[in-house]
Amino acid sequence: MKFFLDTANVKQIKEAADWGILDGVTTNPSLIAKENAKFEDLIKKICHIVLGPVSVESVSTKAEDIIEESRKLAALADNIVVKIPICLEGLKATKILAQEGIHINTTLIFSSMQALLAAKAGTRYVSPFVGRLDDISHEGMNLVDEIVTIYDNYGMDTEIIVASIRHPLHVVEAAMIGADIATIPFGVIEKLVKHPLTDIGMDKFLSDWKKVKKT
Ligand code: E4P
Questions:
Q1: Which of 38, 122, 179, 210, by CA, is between 20 and 30 Å from 105?
Q2: Is 127 in the pocket of ligand 1 (CB under 6 A)?
Q3: What class, spelled out in words, does domain 2-209 have in CATH?
Q4: Residue to mutate, 3, 4, 6, 161, ligand 1, most ligand atoms under 8 Å from C-beta
Q5: Mean pLDDT for the stretch of residues 103-110
Q6: 97: burial class by Cβ within 10 Å (0-12, 13-18, 19+)?
Q7: Ligand 1 atom 8: residue of nearest CA
C-alpha cells in the first residue's frame, strides 16, 4: 500500500520523506492557500523533495481550458499528476491528456459510477473522499469497497487513492479493503506509529537497562 501525504506544507513533506514511508503527495487549492507561498515555486520545491507523484489541481472548468492548464502544470516537473474534478468537461480533457501521457488524478469522487467513468476515460488515479461522506452520515469506506470490486471485475488498472482521511481507522479500513493508496494528513501519519503499550515497553526496557552492570 502506498502512503501519500495530503498537504502542501514543505516542512511536513521533508519530515515524512525522512521517515522513509512517503510515496507521494496530494495537494488541492485549499491546502495550497494555507501556505502563503508563490504557487509555482511551492510546487517545484515539493516535486524536488518527493520522488513519487505530486498531485496538483486544475481550476479550469471547460475542457479546452483544463487541457491547456494541465499541460502547463505537467511541465513544472516530471512527477506532476494533474487533479481534475469529476465532471463531463473533465472527462473530455482526461481522455486527451491521458493520450498525451499526462497522469490524471480524478478528484471529488463521491460515487462508484463517477470512478468507473473516470477509469474509462483513462485516468491514472481516482480519489474517493471518505471523510466528507462520513460527515453527511454516509459510510465513506463503502464507496472504496465498491470501486475496488468494480475495477477488479473489469481488470481496470486505475489506482484508488483513499482521500479525505480523518483518523487512523480510515487507514486501517482502506488497507483491509486493499486500496492502492491512502493520502493522509501529517497528524494522522504521526498517530499511526503510536501505541501506549510500545511507550510502556520502551520505558521499562530503558529503566531495566540502567540496572545492568556494564563492566
Ligand atoms: C485529496 O486529494 C484531498 O486533498 C483531501 O484528502 C481532502 O480532504 P478533506 O476532506 O479533509 O479536505
A1: 38
A2: yes
A3: alpha beta
A4: 6
A5: 98
A6: buried
A7: 164
* CB of residue 174 inside a 6 A radius of ligand 1: no
Q: How far apart are CA 211 and CA 189, in angstroms?
A: 35
For residue 26, the model assigns a pLDDT of 98
pLDDT of residue 126: 98
CA atoms within 13 A on the CB side of 190: 6
pLDDT of residue 22: 97
CA of 38 from ligand 1 middle (Å) equals 21
For ligand 1, atom 7, the nearest C-alpha belongs to: 164
Q: Please, which residues bridge with residue 84 across strands?
A: 106
Residues belonging to the active site: 83
144-168 confidence digits (pLDDT tens): 999 999 999 999 999 999 999 999 9
